[in-house]
Every structure is written in structure tokens, then in C-alpha cells.
Amino acid sequence: MIEQGASTEAGFSNADIAAARRDLVLASLGFAASGTGFGLVYGLAAREAGFSVIEATSMSVFVLAGAAQFAAVGLIANGAGWPSIVFLTALLNSRHLLYSAAMAPWLGGRSRLERAAMAHVLTDETFALSLAHFQRLGRADVVGFWLAAGIDCLSWPIFTAVGVIGGQLIPDPAQLGLDVVFPAAMGGLAVKLATARPEVAAAVAGAALAVVGGIVVGPAVSVVGGLLAPIAGLLMEREGEPGR
Q1: What is the reported pLDDT for 217?
Q2: HSE-up of 207 (CA within 13 Å, CB side)?
Q3: What's the rounded Cα separation, in Å, for the pair 127 and 31?
Q4: pLDDT score of 218
Q5: What Cα–Cα distance (Å) separates residue 24 from each residue in 29, 42, 95, 108, 213?
């Protein structure tokens, strides 16, 4: 954690760190605004699947994975068995293994208990914002991580509960243009993070696989692009090693 009165290894002052954290909070609030509509709609979907307010909200606290939660309540509503539900949600969430691998070099000095807590709240939004924040400072900033995670992980359960209680009054987020905010913001962060050939190769491969999979098979299959794309980055990195 960055102590007050100290400078970072990259030469950032306390004022720089505070400014970076403010930017991080503002960006997190933007993501939260995007996710609000979908939290409400998830709450409505969960209610229609037979979930109580407590059950739906608990799922948003303990599972905390939007896409997997939507998939799970849909399968439950259609009477699917638990093995298929577990398999599909595990596939959708497997991208978090890659997120954790990317964050590990920055957080290797933290305790196992703290890293376990951070892993639980490592959502798509928290990962993208925190990694960009760490790279901007040149080192990990645990306070910044928890600021981003707190905003995202508090808003999702809150609006899940609101959706269960009064979801019939909520319009489709797509009608308000909210469906565009999240992918556009994630795309912007991805462009900023892709600073070397391996990252660019992974980003291009992931986008291509996601689009092809989404068109040919269906939107749910596009997640495979996120799982296979890092292989392209690893191959590109190995080709750039001396002696290769």
C-alpha cells in the first residue's frame, strides 16, 4: 500500500496519487452507471425465475458475476440440471483465471487472505480499471483497487434487490443506450493497455474470435475468444525472445 507522505517508485507524489485515485473513482462511477440498468434487469429476471429478494441479492454478493448470473437464472427458469448450470457458469467465469494471472505480479507481496478477498471482487470492470491504474503509477495501489472494487461490488447487489422488488417498471437498458456504455468503455481501456506487440496480438485475436463466434454460433460462445486470445499474445512474446 502506498503510504501518505511517500513517493512511488515511478516518482509520483501524493498529489499525483490522489489525482489518479480521483480519476479511478470517476471511471468506476461511469461503469457503475452502465451496470445499474443491467443489475435492475437481472433482478427482474431472477424474480421471474422464482428467486426471492434475499436469494437474488445473495447471488450478486457471493457469485458476483453478471454474465454468469444471467446465464444461471435463465437455465434455472428453464429447468436445467445443476451439472449444466455449473459447467456453463464455470466456462463464462474462466476468464477470471487470466485476470488473476495478470494481476499476480503486482500483488505478489500481499497476504494470501488479502489476495483471496481481492480475487472475489475481481470483476471485469475492477480488473480493467485497476490494471490501468497500476500501470499509470508504475506499482500496485491497493487503496485504488479497493476504491474501484467497492463501487462496482456495492452497486450490483443494491440494484439487483431494486430489480427484484420493482423490476416491472424498468425499461430495457438498450432503450436508454446503456448497453453501449460498458463495451465502449472496456474497448477504450483495452486500447490503452495494449502497448506492446503481445497485447495487441491478444486484443486483435480476441476481438476476431468473439465476433466470429458470436455470429456463427451465438453471443454466449464469444467468451471463448477471451480464453484463446492470450495464446496469440504468448506466441508473439515467445517469438520476440532472444534466440528465437
Answers
A1: 63
A2: 10
A3: 12
A4: 60
A5: 9, 26, 23, 22, 32
